[in-house]
Amino acid sequence: SVHHATVDNECAAPVTAVFAVSNHGGIPGTEAIMTKAYLKTKGIYVISATQVTDPDSAAGTFMENILFLFNQFENDLRRDKSVMGMTECLKRGYWFNNVPLGYDRKKVGREHIITVNEDGKKLRNAFIWKATEGMSDIAICERLKAMGLDVDRKHLNKIFQNVFYAGYMRHNLLGNEIVKGKHEALIDEVIFNKINGISNAGY
After folding, report:
1. pLDDT per residue over 69-112, tens digit each?
2. Which residue intervals of the chain are DSSP H helices?
3. Residue 93 backbone class (left: φ over 0; alpha: ψ -120 to 50; beta: rest)
4. In this structure, are strands 45-48 and 103-108 parallel, antiparallel, or unpaired?
5. Degrees to nearest 5, angle at CA 176 with 172 and 181
6. Nearest to 69 by CA among 37, 27, 41, 38
7. Distance CA 28, CA 75 (A)
8. Per the confidence metrics, is the pTM higher than 0.85?
């Protein structure tokens, strides 16, 4: 609930008046029920201003608990719908998370366009050096640093394994599926696969 006020006087127990018994703050319904019960043991009553219940009766307590659980159910439905929307977005090839090093994101109309930036152009050399010259990661890091791009060896190794740079996407919401992205590829599949020791059969 958003609005609340506490009333305390000598003739009555402290009362916290809430606008509604809701769970929009993301607190699980069971936790809300336990919190309300704990406050009651301290003589503090949580009373809804819009949902009439009797906190001292079994029926009233039961109804309040039902409201808490129902609101948790609504929140869970919203979360499931949100996850489904994000998964569908990924399957269509659109990336909504932070973009990796070497990319910029800009909004054009309702669409987010992801393109290679100046750091990405420098980073493209790292893939080429690795694939064609067999350079060590340390040597590549030093050469990139001389070009003004500071990347440590551990980060570089993760970059080489990230399919995003080859124009594809991997995400927890997709499970083991790898999807062709709408974003600009930094390097082609042949170079990416050569660096990672996999066949050129695609994804």
Report:
1. 777 777 777 776 777 878 888 899 899 889 999 999 988 887 88
2. 29-41, 58-91, 118-128, 137-146, 153-161, 189-196
3. left
4. unpaired
5. 75
6. 27
7. 9
8. no
